[in-house]
Amino acid sequence: MKLPSTGRRVLVSGASRGLGRALSRAFAANGDRVAVHYGSREADARLTLESLAGDGHILVGGDVSDPAGAARVADAVDAGLGGIDVLVNNAAVNDPHPLPTTSYEEWAEHWQRHLSVNVLGTALLSHRAARGMIDRGTGGRIVNIGSRGAFRGEPDYPAYGAAKAAVHALGQSLAVSLAPYGIGVASIAPGFIETERVAHRLVGEEGEAIRAQSPYGRVASAEEVADAVLWLASPAAEWASGTVLDLNGASHLRT
User: Fold this and answer.
1) Catalytic annotation on 104?
2) Tens digit of pLDDT for each residue in 187-219?
3) Against a cut of 0.85, is the pTM above it?
4) Rounded distance, CA 57 to CA 181, Å?
5) Buried b vs exposed e over 148-165: b needs ≥16 C-beta within 10 Å?
6) Is residue 91 scored above 60 in pLDDT?
7) N or C of the chain: less Cβ packing under 10 Å?
């Protein structure tokens, strides 16, 4: 997808690899300057940075689940790009923890980690980015990466499903409160995405079962999801603010 470039300043959280890398590439190819964020995978994030078209992109590291860490990330983007016009909240954790086989101590740890990164990190970065947009009077866009798991349930990843439901709700609340400032907020709810992290699940019988979830008989590419995010972040998508866009190949239909 190619949309008219406005030379925007874009922060993509969790951009070391996978979907985050595809998102960064999509915005860079569109003529935007991208801040590639990483939590711990600096080497992978540098590969993302080196793969981007154009120039003026920067690398930013930090723990977005920590209030001070998220503030430092936002400050680094302000210093490196001069501000944030588009925030894509992609940073997330997704570790299995089915209740029947997970100890109480592990269960508590998983919930704390999923809520801290997936929900609190999204909220913290959204506040910092939106406050900058408000103070500059320029408006902007925030796009949250949610999940179909927020609607269909995730029995092996319950904290992930619950966290993504919270991300969707947060996005809709912010869409209402930030619209008067020209800031659009939307979320996208993808199904299974083929990335390096989950490649092992797409082989053998498990892979066949996952692909069979969609009547297309396949899963999404990271580039397909990135194209949809690029549109949601565009000026053309202002009236989509508040939406949660399903992007799952008809593998889960909401009523």
Assistant:
1) no
2) 999 999 998 888 888 899 999 999 999 999 999
3) yes
4) 27
5) bbbbbebeebbbbbbbbb
6) yes
7) C
Tokens representing 203 are 């082989």
Give CA–CA dist 146/204, Å, rounded.
27
- Following CA atoms 10, 6, 184, 162 in sequence, which dihedral angle do they give, to the nearest 10 degrees? -30
Distance of CA 146 to the CA centre of its chain: 7
d(Cα 171, Cα 186) in Å, to the nearest integer?
Answer: 6
Residue 215 burial (10 A CB sphere; 0-12, 13-18, 19+): exposed
Question: Could you say which of 38, 104, 157, 160 is catalytic?
Answer: 160
Whether residue 3 is predicted with pLDDT greater than 70 in this model: the reply is no
Long-range contacts of 251-255 (CB under 8 A, 24+ apart): 251/148, 251/191, 251/192, 251/213, 251/214, 251/215, 252/148, 252/151, 252/152, 252/191, 252/213, 254/151
Close Cβ partners of 231 (under 8 Å, ≥ 6 residues apart): 1, 3, 237
Residue 220, both tokens? 């999404």
For residue 160, what is the enclosing H or E element? Answer: helix 158-178
Q: Are 190 and 245 in contact (CB under 8 A)?
A: no
Amino acid at 60: V
